[in-house]
Amino acid sequence: MNSHVVFIRDPDLDINKVNVRRASPGDEHGIYRVAVSVSDKKKDSYQGFLMDDYASDPDYYIDMFRDRIDNLKYFYVAELDGRIIGFSLAYKKEMWLLYHEEWLDDIHWHPSFDMEILDDFVMIDKTAIEAEHTGEGIGSLLYKSIISDMRENNIHYILSETIVNPIPNFASLAFRQKQDYILAGVRFEEYKGDIFTDLIYYKRIQLS
Questions:
Q1: In the chain, what are the domain boundaries?
Q2: Quick check: 30 and 83 in contact, CB under 8 A?
Q3: What are phi and psi of 104, to 5 degrees?
Q4: How much is the pLDDT for 207?
Q5: Which pLDDT does position 11 carry in this prediction?
Q6: 97: helix, coil or strand?
Q7: Separation of alpha carbons 74 and 23, rounded Å
Q8: E strands, the chain, where?
Q9: Helix 28-37 and helix 58-71: axis angle, to 10°?
Q10: What pLDDT score was predicted for residue 111?
């Protein structure tokens, strides 16, 4: 799930020195290092992923990132001095449903949700920034790259999930509110014996 942290670590960072680009083969180890830095057994509602424990199985998760690099267009990394310090993993509709076949059927859609939105969309899955660089605008740079490519490809809608139970992701909820996302539905999923509640949000992207 997405992670957006609001604590400022290095106010002197020159954001212009941060390079955002598409993830490429060989980036998987740097991406994994960032994922591990915000993933541990003590889940924090304001920082980190609330489900995956990346440190528990390095080979599996590195292979997963390698696969996504090979198959996804909307996968970006942020670099500082040639070192990966953040990433955003997003899927075009057909790729999201390839990896999550039952996702659409599992959602209890809001009565006002326009199902035509699902004709084409990009799903933001995970965003992570190294702890020492959170709150510096790097997540926003990654987000802008996704939006820019969506506009180039005439894709109007962006979707995302946020966990609200058993541990609410307050940082992600705040980001959805700040970016004027609209609630689309709710989904329940089982993970390692626990039932998680995910809110599904969407936003229309202005193409001009």
A1: 15-204
A2: yes
A3: -60, -40
A4: 76
A5: 53
A6: helix
A7: 9
A8: 18-22, 75-80, 83-92, 107-109, 122-129, 157-165, 182-191, 194-204
A9: 120
A10: 97
pLDDT in tens, 3-62: 333 333 455 567 889 999 999 999 999 999 999 888 754 555 445 444 578 888 999 999
pTM comes to 0.84
Which residue is listed with tokens 């190294």?
130
58 preceded by a cis bond (ω within 30 of 0): no
- The answer, yes or no, to whether residue 116 has pLDDT greater than 80, is yes
CATH homologous superfamily of 15-204 equals: Gcn5-related N-acetyltransferase (GNAT) (3.40.630.30)
Residue 4: which of 90, 78, 80, 86 has the closest Cα?
86
Dihedral of the CA atoms 141, 72, 105, 125 (nearest 10)? -30
Q: Which residues pair with 163 in a beta bridge?
A: 198
Q: Which of 2, 13, 39 is nearest to 132 (CA)?
A: 13
Cis check for the bond before 25: say yes or no (omega within 30 of 0).
no
Rounded to whole angstroms, the Cα distance separating 158 from 32 reads: 25
Select, from the ranges 50-59, 148-157, 164-173, the one with the highest average predicted confidence (pLDDT).
148-157
**94-103 burial: b if 16+ Cβ within 10 Å, else e:** ebbeeeeeee
